[in-house]
Design a protein that fits this description.
By secondary structure, the chain is mostly helical. The chain has four helices and no strands. Amino acid transporter that specifically mediates the pH-dependent export of the cationic amino acids arginine, histidine and lysine from lysosomes. It is found in: Lysosome membrane.
């Protein structure tokens, strides 16, 4: 069956949404990696997002039709949302790993000063 214009528009919007949604996690992952710290990042935000993405993705999977012929079409129609929810869930697992790794490092190195504590502007006359 071919898509009509409305379905195709929704499908395109779904894939654009998927790209933006997946792309939203990379800046935080990169920033945490660069600083070797998750300070200032709310783990509760990521934990709740993980629960939301997990339940949303599962709702799409569990709602799948019983007949084999409709299952492939259903999967194809919901693919961008499945990729978005489970893909972001996968990336949030990496954020969780960063929270665990960088928390242990912080406890092991009590004298370490975060870069954000240092002043941004230095008086050039004294330098």
């Amino acid at each position: 069956n071919s898509f009509d214009m409305t379905e195709m528009s929704g499908f395109i919007c779904g894939y654009i949404s998927c790209v933006f949604y997946l792309g939203s996690r990379f800046p935080q992952l990169y920033k945490n990696f660069q600083r070797r710290s998750t300070e200032g990042t709310s783990y509760l935000l990521f934990a709740l997002a993980m629960m939301g993405n997990c339940t949303y993705g599962l709702s799409l999977v569990l709602k799948m039709p019983a007949t084999e012929s409709f299952r492939a079409l259903y999967f194809l129609h919901h693919l961008p949302w499945l990729i978005g929810s489970f893909g972001v869930l996968f990336l949030d697992i990496f954020v969780t790993v960063q929270f665990i790794l960088y928390r242990q490092r912080k406890e092991g190195q009590p004298g370490l000063v975060a870069l954000e504590v240092e002043p941004l502007l230095v008086n050039e006359e004294t330098a």
